[in-house]
Amino acid sequence: MEPRITIITLGVSDLKRSYRFYKNGLGLSTEDSPEKGIIFFQLDGTKLALYPIDKLAEDVGPEFEEQENEKRKFSGITLAHNTETRDEVDQLLECAKQAGAKIEKKAQEVFWGGYSGYFSDPDGHIWEVACLHK
Fold it and tell me: Which of 27, 59, 107, 127 is the most buried (most CB within 10 A)?
């Protein structure tokens, strides 16, 4: 196996809402639309895909299909975006908040020598925004 990740797919509950969050709110680039049924955003070296969570679970297998009224718990996975400066961390967290994200942890100094904060998108996917002090 080659050491790379080509696509990260997020299962979403409302494809149109997530499309607006990532395209209009965070400014990610795509030529896809929700009518296609799946959306791909081109990132540097990889793609971020949005796909309805029920269809994603069905594709993976019946044991992964979501149960009604089942409370979601932390999946153990976070996505990260690194910036060059502390100001960019703060700006991106504010941009995400204005787009409808929930700030899970305000940006702060962290043990590994950087500055980091977390937000969750409308479906609860956790993103870290961080920079390393130079």
Answer: 107
